[in-house]
């Protein structure tokens, strides 16, 4: 516990955050415009004040300790708050400002998150957004990312998360395909149809539900690919029936290039979460984006 005469300084928090974000003392020093020895002394001084080791140091790597991560989360919130203060001196308290760093998967990011960002930028004129849409699972603490939009069940972690909604999957086919091959009236009819399948690896096998009824579908695809966008394109081309996320097929249904097949049957919905370092010190720019994303997900 800190004594009454001990004060943690802004520069100490800034140095800690830089080391965590950059991954090394050398990179942190470059980011702060100083030298490695100076940053090391500041962090060592902070450790002395706290009476705890914040990093495990070796000749090969630098790793943050459990208490170091906890201190960083608090430091991150304080630094974010200071950034907001600096960027909004003439604005009302708590108004979003500054740069929001965000990451999401390429498909969901491009087709859904991008529209959230557009609404966010139109609503909050004093913010900027730096977005990365890739399949890379970013380390949001070390990389200084404010929020990650993640599709699927979350793994256990020390990060905080807020559920935004769920992605539904449906069977789709093109009108031309259905005219040529006939309608699909029942799940068993799928045996007489061609399939387009998104499968990153192995043969497709889907569990689908109609109310409490549960069935397994294991088709032999006419076309199998590890990219949903490619599977969507081949389905529109009339190659076969495909199980697709509804957000990807929505525009095709609206413009008449796709039809929903077997609307009563679908697999379990997939959750979507906003993940961020801490809920205790959530900057206004992050809170505003998460609130907007949840609202837009709800009305989509």
Description:
The protein has 300 residues and is an alpha/beta fold. It has helices at residues 10-22, 25-32, 36-50, 66-87, 106-123, 175-181, 228-236, 246-255, 284-299; strands at residues 55-57, 62-64, 98-104, 127-133, 147-151, 160-167, 169-173, 195-198, 206-210, 213-217, 223-225, 241-245, 259-261, 270-276. The chain has three domains: 10-64, Orthogonal Bundle (Arc Repressor Mutant, subunit A); 91-166 and 271-299, D-Maltodextrin-Binding Protein, domain 2 (3-Layer(aba) Sandwich), CATH 3.40.190; 169-267, D-Maltodextrin-Binding Protein, domain 2 (3-Layer(aba) Sandwich), CATH 3.40.190.290. The strands form four sheets. The protein has a five-stranded mixed β-sheet with strand order 4-3-5-14-6. A five-stranded mixed β-sheet has the order 11-8-12-7-13. The mean pLDDT is 87.
Topology, please?
Blueprint: H1 10-22, H2 25-32, H3 36-50, E1 55-57, E2 62-64, H4 66-87, E3 98-104, H5 106-123, E4 127-133, E5 147-151, E6 160-167, E7 169-173, H6 175-181, E8 195-198, E9 206-210, E10 213-217, E11 223-225, H7 228-236, E12 241-245, H8 246-255, E13 259-261, E14 270-276, H9 284-299
Parallel strand pairs: 3-4, 3-5, 8-11, 8-12
Antiparallel strand pairs: 1-2, 5-14, 6-14, 7-12, 7-13, 9-10
């Amino acid at each position: 516990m800190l004594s009454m005469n001990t004060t943690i300084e802004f520069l100490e928090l800034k140095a800690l955050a830089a080391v965590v974000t950059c991954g090394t003392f050398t990179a942190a020093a470059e980011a702060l415009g100083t030298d490695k020895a100076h940053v090391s002394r500041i962090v060592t001084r902070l450790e002395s004040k706290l009476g705890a080791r914040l990093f495990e140091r070796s000749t090969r790597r630098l790793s943050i300790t459990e208490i170091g991560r906890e201190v960083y989360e608090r430091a991150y919130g304080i630094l974010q708050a200071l950034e907001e203060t600096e960027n909004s001196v003439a604005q009302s308290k708590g108004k979003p400002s500054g740069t929001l760093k965000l990451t999401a998967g390429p498909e969901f990011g491009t087709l859904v998150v991008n529209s959230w960002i557009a609404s966010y930028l139109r609503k909050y004129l004093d913010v900027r957004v730096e977005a990365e849409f890739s399949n890379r699972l970013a380390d949001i603490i070390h990389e200084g990312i404010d929020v990650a939009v993640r599709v699927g069940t979350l793994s256990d972690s020390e990060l905080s998360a807020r559920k935004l909604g769920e992605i539904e999957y449906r069977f789709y086919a093109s009108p031309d395909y259905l005219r040529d091959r006939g309608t699909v009236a029942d799940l068993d009819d799928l045996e007489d149809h061609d399939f387009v399948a998104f499968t990153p690896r192995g043969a497709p096998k889907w569990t689908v539900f109609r109310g409490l009824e549960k069935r397994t579908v294991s088709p032999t695809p006419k076309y199998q690919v590890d990219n949903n966008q490619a599977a969507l394109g081949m389905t529109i081309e009339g190659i076969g029936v495909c199980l697709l996320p509804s957000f990807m097929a929505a525009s095709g249904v609206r413009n008449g290039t796709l039809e929903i097949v077997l609307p009563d049957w679908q697999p379990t919905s997939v959750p979507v979460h906003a993940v961020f370092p801490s809920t205790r010190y959530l900057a206004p720019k992050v809170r505003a984006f998460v609130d907007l994303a949840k609202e837009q997900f709800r009305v989509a």
